[in-house]
Amino acid sequence: MRRVALCLLRLYPRRWRERYGPEMGALLEEHRVRLRTLADLVAGAARARLDADHRSRAKEAAMAKGRSNAPRCSFCGKDAKQVSRLVAGPGVYICDGCIDLCNEVLAIERQQGGPPAPPQPTRRPPPDIPKRFRTWLRNVFWSTAPQTG
Predict the structure, then answer these.
(1) Which of 69, 92, 142, 143 could pair with 74 as two cysteines, CB 3.0-4.6 Å apart?
(2) CA–CA separation, 112 and 95 (whole Å)
(3) Containing H/E element for 104?
(4) CA-CA distances (angstroms) from residue 23 to 9, 26, 35, 42?
(5) pTM reported for the whole predicted model
(6) Is residue 12 within 8 Å of residue 44, measured between CB atoms?
(7) CA–CA distance from 94 to each of 60, 76, 116 (Å)?
(8) What is the pLDDT of residues 22-70, one digit of tens each?
(9) Long-range residue pairs from 114-123, CB within 8 A, at least 24 positions apart, any chain
């Protein structure tokens, strides 16, 4: 079954196989492969294919509408043409206008003595489990009992 599982990895998209294939192959070599494992591999391959198809179709639709994949500010949504500077982070962008706004908020907080302290969690006493259980039993058994009348 292990050989079948390794063959099923070929059902995944090429980009997925390049990224996760060796790791998945090693995992399949280490563990017992069952029928459920094979079913999970087939289902995962189908999801990976559908997700890749969906992303490529969405990208094509965005390009058809005239939108480009130009970076945008992750906070206000302006693209690089609408701002004077766009700073890149790990998967996000922020424009100079949003940076100015953040600096203003931080300056106000410094003047007021810093950010407000986070609220302290309140401790509640543990619930009366036996009482809750008795109530649950009473509701379950007495509410479903046939009524004679």
Answers:
(1) 92
(2) 26
(3) helix 96-111
(4) 11, 5, 20, 17
(5) 0.37
(6) yes
(7) 25, 8, 25
(8) 888 888 888 888 888 888 888 888 888 887 665 666 666 666 655 556 7
(9) none
